[in-house]
Amino acid sequence: MSDHFLRRATGAALPFLIWAAHFGFCYIVAAAQCTPGGWRPGGPNPYLLGAATLAALAACAWIGVAAQRRLRASPRKEFTDYVAAAGAVLSFIAVVWTGIPVLLVRGCA
After folding, report:
1. CA distances from 50 to 6, 14, 16, 55, 70 (A)
2. Is residue 2 part of a domain?
3. Whole-number pLDDT of residue 53
4. What is the pTM of this model?
5. pLDDT at site 26
6. Which residue in 64, 102, 57 sits closest to 86, CA to CA?
7. Cβ atoms within 10 A of the Cβ of 10, count?
8. Domain around 26
9. Below-70 pLDDT ranges, the chain
10. 3-state SS assignment for residue 101
């Protein structure tokens, strides 16, 4: 009998890893673009950060839908599927709350 613990644990933690990657990417890019002599003077690129936010939101939605399908289709409910579904919802909200302030920044102080 194969347990596949690492695969199931990674699947349950994946929405939170997506949020963490989005958070880090957005704030590192914003900080790099706001430093004197940075990539792009005048503030962070809203198109780059918007694309990263949309990609993270799509990934969270896809993981949530996949977890819901597994929960509905299987007679044997897995706890990791519940965690993945709930984590996808929480991570979706976290990505929105992380992305909104970054996208609203027009210039660097």
Report:
1. 32, 21, 19, 9, 30
2. no
3. 92
4. 0.83
5. 87
6. 64
7. 13
8. 7-104
9. 1-3, 37-43, 105-109
10. helix
